[in-house]
Amino acid sequence: DIQMTQSPSSLSASVGASVTITCQASQDITNYLHWYQQKPGQAPKLLIYEASNLQTGVPSRFSGSGSGTHFTFTISSLQPEDIATYYCQQYDNLPITFGQGTRLEIK
Amino acid sequence: QVQLQESGPGLVKPSQTLSLTCSVSGASISKSVYYWGWIRQPPGRDLEWIGYIYYTGSSFYNPSLKGRVAISVDTSNNQFSLKVNSVTAADTAVYFCVTVGMARLEFDSWGQGALVTVSA
User: Fold this and answer.
1) Does A87 touch chain B (CB under 8 A)?
2) Measured between alpha carbons, how far is residue B115 from residues B7, B39, B85, B97 in Å?
3) Is residue A51 within 8 angstroms of chain B, CB to CB?
4) Chain A touched by B31 (CB under 8 Å)
5) In this complex, which of A89, A95, A99 lies closest to B62 when CB atoms are compared?
6) Which of A66, A74, B36, B56 is 20 to 30 A from B7, alpha carbon to alpha carbon?
7) pLDDT tens digits for B2-52?
8) pLDDT tens figures, A41-60
9) How close B14 comes to chain A (CA, Å)?
């Protein structure tokens, strides 16, 4: 199985700050990676597909980049509604696997 | 947007079979460009992909569930179902039904989730 390692596991930042989360794959997954946001008590929501493409309707302050084994997810100006846990997901090989999540809090 | 709704027992005894159904609206299972899948999340823990199925019956499962899982489709009722047999406390989780994009295996639409507790 491809292991997906996210860092940090938790993060606290101020409103308006730029926030970056990284996701490292245990082998080359090209750009076969998605990012999700899960707010407390809700189902996850797809934000970024194929590493860098913004899902329709998602605010442009969210972005993703990377290829191979190293990927980043950035919120350019943190908003209070961005409080959530963020997950990466690879689909290069079955089984589909997720990172362990990054919990984002407002400072 | 496709809407999904899970239903089924919230409590299952150890060694028995967990059964959930996902009702689909906004799309026809048999005319769709999606796979239909299940993901679970133990309380306070990470997401685990369980498997997905195409309306023809072609399916793929996570080997971590050691062959205890079956997903089926009911095109006449526009539903799909999950069965996990020989459950233990480790199967306690919120179970989400999802649409799975065929080209990129992204989970685009999600049900609200159904908590299933395995306990005697």
Assistant:
1) yes
2) 10, 12, 16, 12
3) no
4) no
5) A95
6) B56
7) 999 999 999 999 999 999 999 999 999 988 789 999 999 999 899 999 999
8) 999 999 999 999 999 999 99
9) 26
